[in-house]
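Students often ask why inverse folding is considered easier than folding. One informal answer: many sequences map to the same fold, so there is more than one right answer. In these notes we will look at a single instance of the problem. The structure comes first.
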């Protein structure tokens, strides 16, 4: 992971990011919208069936499935591979936690190997049969940028693997947490149904209130002073997004979930490393909430979210709902 996009510095970081261009610019998001809408409809049909026969687990039925369906179709990853990719992503994440146990690190190391095998083979196959898909485009770009085929494939492996795993748990957590915070107080659900133009604001408040990534870790490249705090070269800094979002100097009464707050948050990071998939995560959440609000006016939570025992990456493993 130390060589993936989020851990690189300029000039390597700049070069890799430029090679991708603006992945989810307005035109791409518009092009992807009908597909995401259809995928949401399909998942909500399944949810509806489960709700008719009792209760349903929103996290497993919808939140877990939408991000892999979206990124999988965008990168043309065969749908039969999706469950395997979800499993290895969940297992890999331990290595990025603050205090993993030895056995968690072993699970993570195994998952990293599986990711290497999967994405190396994917790139090999795409090279053998290139098309007009996103990954074939990256292969063409990297073959021009990098004369050494081995180095090009290494960069392609890291980018494709990292973008895939960066998109999955993060978005799934936002989907569940947005639904949980809206249903936790039924008047919020009713109000948003009547005022759907505030769906974007609801997404930002969910991101602020309980960000999918709580901590990002950096190492100081030089002696510096950060917000009045001296930081010595080589010391490790844990940037606490959750705490920053709850700073009352930025967001008064931060513990209140307020749909009309129009507050600020750092949940997608900032600067050169700002999240590359923020607009895609927003599109998925907007589409899901818009359809969910209109199709399930009486939706309610029957068992509160269960969170995986983690510090850095939030993960909701179940959220029981009924109508
Ligand atoms: C709600 C969903 C998401 C959240 C909360 C989130 C959050 C973040 C955060 C906090 C960072 C680190 C930013 C920094 O270091 O300043 C990041 C980076 C990144 N994210 Fe996301 N992300 C989400 C969804 C996605 C999606 C859908 C994709 C891809 C399709 C994606 C791809 C990336 C990549 C590639 C980076 C590394 C960017 C770089 O270092 O230049 N993320 N994200």
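Output (designed amino acids):
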């Amino acid at each position: 992971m130390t060589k993936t996009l989020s851990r690189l510095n300029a000039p390597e970081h700049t070069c890799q990011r430029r090679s991708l261009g603006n992945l989810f610019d307005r035109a791409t998001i518009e092009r992807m919208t009908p597909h995401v809408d259809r995928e949401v409809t399909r998942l909500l049909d399944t949810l509806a069936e489960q709700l008719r026969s009792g209760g349903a687990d929103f996290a497993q039925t919808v939140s877990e499935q939408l991000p892999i369906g979206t990124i999988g179709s965008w990168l043309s990853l065969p749908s039969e591979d999706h469950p395997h990719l979800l499993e290895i992503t969940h297992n890999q994440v331990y290595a990025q936690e603050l205090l993993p146990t030895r056995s968690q690190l072993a699970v993570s190391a195994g998952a990293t190997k599986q990711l290497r095998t999967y994405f190396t083979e994917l790139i090999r196959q795409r090279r053998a049969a290139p098309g007009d898909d996103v990954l074939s485009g990256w292969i063409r770009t990297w073959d021009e940028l990098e004369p050494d085929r081995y180095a090009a494939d290494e960069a392609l492996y890291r980018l494709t693997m990292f973008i895939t795993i960066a998109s999955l748990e993060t978005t799934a957590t936002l989907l569940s947490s947005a639904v949980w915070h809206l249903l936790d107080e039924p008047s919020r659900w009713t109000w948003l149904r009547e005022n759907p133009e505030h769906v974007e604001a609801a997404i930002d408040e969910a991101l602020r209130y309980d960000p999918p990534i709580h901590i990002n870790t950096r190492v100081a490249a030089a002696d510096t002073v950060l917000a009045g705090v001296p930081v010595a070269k080589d010391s490790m800094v844990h940037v606490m997004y959750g705490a920053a979002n709850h700073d009352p100097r930025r967001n008064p009464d931060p513990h209140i979930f307020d749909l009309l707050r129009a507050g600020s948050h750092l949940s997608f990071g900032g600067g050169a490393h700002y999240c590359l998939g923020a607009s895609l995560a927003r599109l998925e959440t907007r589409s899901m909430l818009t359809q969910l609000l209109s199709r399930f006016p009486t939706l309610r939570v029957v068992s509160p979210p269960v969170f995986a025992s983690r510090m850095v990456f939030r993960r909701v493993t179940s959220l029981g709902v009924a109508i």
